[in-house]
Sequence to fold (475 residues):
Amino acid sequence: MLRRFLHTLIFLCLLVQVQGQNTAMFRKKAYEHASVGICVLDLSNSKRIAGLNEQRSLQPASVVKLVTTAAALEILGPDCRFETRIEYTGSLVNGVLDGDLWIRGGGDPSLGSRQVDGDSDAFLDQWVKAVKIAGIKTVKGRIIADASIFDDEPVSPYWLWEDMGNYYAAGIYGLGVYDNSFQLELRSAAAGSRPEILSVRPELPLLTIDNHLKAVNNNLDSAYFYGVPYQWARSLFGTMPSNRSRFVIKGDIPDPPFFLAGRFGEELEKNGVRVEGNPVSLRQLADADRLSALPAKILEKTYSIPLSQMIRIIQVKSDNLYTEYLLRHLALSVYGKPATAKDGIKVVRDFWQKKGLDVSALSLSDACGLSPNDRVSPAFLAQMLRYMSEKSPYASVYKSAFPWAGKEGSVAGFLKGTALEGKLRLKSGSVQSVTSYAGYYEQNGKSYVVVLMVNNADADRFQIRKDMEHFLLAL
Fold:
């Protein structure tokens, strides 16, 4: 008995010594005032291979997306799709619709999305075709965009003002289109001059841009917008490279439902269908409840890409918009419409608590990690990833949604050119003073969960990533 105890004690001492050596690089002066969290688990026996502050809740940035994508996959299933419907109310006689055309939003983030291959306007062609097949030649009423499946608070109150108006902080609407964002094409001259706006795609007739941008002698995109939902004024600040004949930046569409109603109307007019009333969003109407209750006839249904493909987009490209849409759909699955971010967060926490995870280490203000209030511990992420690997019926779907480090997406440069290139499936996270990675490492028939999180280090992101690479290579 004594010998067995001594052997166990020696093993534990060696394990602590090895883990101390592995994490020594994070004890340098650059990390003296930082918060560093590490958790590496061997999935074959659930043993911790390396750990440092793994119970400490840290700001995660985009790795927190994994918490929502996993819950959505479990609750909604990989084949789940979201439906947008074209309907009409009123009477249709001899080609004249004495009533309104409706676009009923189903919370589809992929409608016209640039993240999906193919013609981004194909859905409009289908809608116009459906209207013409129904024999409608004149619409006496309006095109009404109904986004009421979600609430009217499209952006998080916990996001920073400096993010508002930019494409990565685009609002979440029950009816969205084109990733709820636009592309602004610019041309610049000499350093110090103000770049010229060439075009906006898609065209946004109501959009005004107060241009304070400057051209500088570098190759960086440091341009940013300021603006809020439902208001069509945007201010443009920052810098862009000088002497560029074409340079593209992106901002958010201020009111996607209203914009889409107008866009649909334009396409109908081009194809010989007259719409007499002005396009409108249901949110803008005083009698919205009465209008919504009118009997309607469905003309067309448009379906999103499957959930599994959305999760792949989220985890490879770190897409904030898709993640926040999934959060609202989780709210819908339990609480019904209108879906709110707050209810979605409650569904996520309740789900993981029921699975036996300690959610006291999880504090969410959004789903995408843009909020500086988000917190999660490396241990929670590691246990969640372990659950998805060992207990989820969709384990292979979930794992395959991760990009290969050194090869794909947001982790294409991490571990590139090292012995671990293409051997770890990882999700990255970076915002301000946060650098994080989480995912899986599989080799020689063994599987590991890896979580690395650094907050507030006195080093640039390049050096932090190099230290993380050295840590992984030394394991």
